[in-house]
Amino acid sequence: MVLTLAPLAVFLGVVGAVALCLFTFWDRIVLYLGRWTEPYRIGLERAAIPIKSEELVVGILAVAVVPWGVLTFLLRLEPLAGALILILFLLTAFFGCRGWINMKIAKRLAAFNAQLELSLRLIAGALRVGMGLRQALVMVVSDMADPARVEFNRVLSQTTIGVSIYDALDQLSQRMPSSELTMMTRAIRVQSQTGGNLGKVLENLAETIKQRRRIMRKMRAMTSEARASKYIITALPIVVGAFVVGFEPDMRDGLFHTPVGHVCLVVVAILLGSGWWLFGRISRFDV
User: CA-to-CA distance for 35 and 56, rounded, in angstroms?
Assistant: First the structure.
C-alpha cells in the first residue's frame, strides 16, 4: 500500500514545492518576465483584457505544464516522449493564447471602427456650435458605448495630465490601428497647424467612411461564394479522412504506419494549407 502511494506522494510533494517557490519569489518572477512580455502587453491593451502580461505568461506556462505533469504521472511516459509532449503542450498553449488575443483584438477593433462614423459626426456637430475639440470628445464619451467611450475617455484622461490632445489622439491611433482613425487624427493635426473648418473636414471624413463601409459590405456579398467554397473544399478532405480512419482499418494502417502514407499525409496537409491561403487571397480586397 505504501509503495503504491509513493509515486503520488512524490508528485504532490513536487507540485507543493513548485507552488511554494512561485508564492515566495512571485515578485522576482514577474520582474524577470517583464522584459519578455512586451508584445503581450500591447495585445492585452488593444483587446482591453484586464490582466497583466506577466500573469498571462505564467498562466500559459501553467496551462501547459499542469496537464503535462498529470499526463506524465498517469501514463509513466519515457523522458524523450515526456519532453516532446511538453513542447507540444507549450506550443499549443502559446499559439492558442495568441489566437484568442488576436480574435479579441479584431472583434474590438471592428466594433470601434463601426462607431467611428457616428463619433465623427458628434465631434463635427459639437464643433459647429462653437465647442472646442476637447468638449466635443466629452460629448462622444457621454453619448457613445464601449469601446469608443473607453478609448476617447482615455484620450481625455491623458490631456488632464499634460499630454497634448493631438499626441493623445496619435496614441489612440496606435492602440486602435485602422486607416480610418489614422485619417481622422491626421486631419485634426493638419487643421490645427493650417487652420480651416475642422467640423466640415470631419463631416466629409464621416461621409467617406460611410461610403467605404457600403463598398466593403458589397464586396463581402460578392465574395461570399469564394469564402464558402474555401470552407467547403477544406472540410471535404478532412471529413473523408475521418471516415477512412473510422471505417477502413486497412487504409488507416497504410496512412499511419507506412512511409508512403506519411508522405501522403504531409502532401495533403501542404495542399490544404496552400488552398486555404489561396482562397483567402482571392476573397480579400483592400479598400
Answer: 14
Mean pLDDT score across all residues of the chain: 76
Provide the pLDDT for residue 3. Answer: 47
pLDDT beyond 80 at 207: yes
What's the pLDDT score for residue 155? Answer: 84
List of residues 6+ apart from 14 with CB closer than 8 A: none
For the chain, give every domain's residue range: 2-107, 110-221, 223-282
CATH superfamily of the 110-221 domain: Type II secretion system (T2SS), domain F (1.20.81.30)
Would the pLDDT of 86 be above 80? no
Grid cell digits, residue 179: 486607416
Cell of 134: 476637447
Q: Which pLDDT belongs to residue 226?
A: 72
Give dist(CA 152, CA 139) in Å, integer: 10
Residue 190 CA, chain-centre distance (Å), reads: 32
CA diameter of the chain: 87
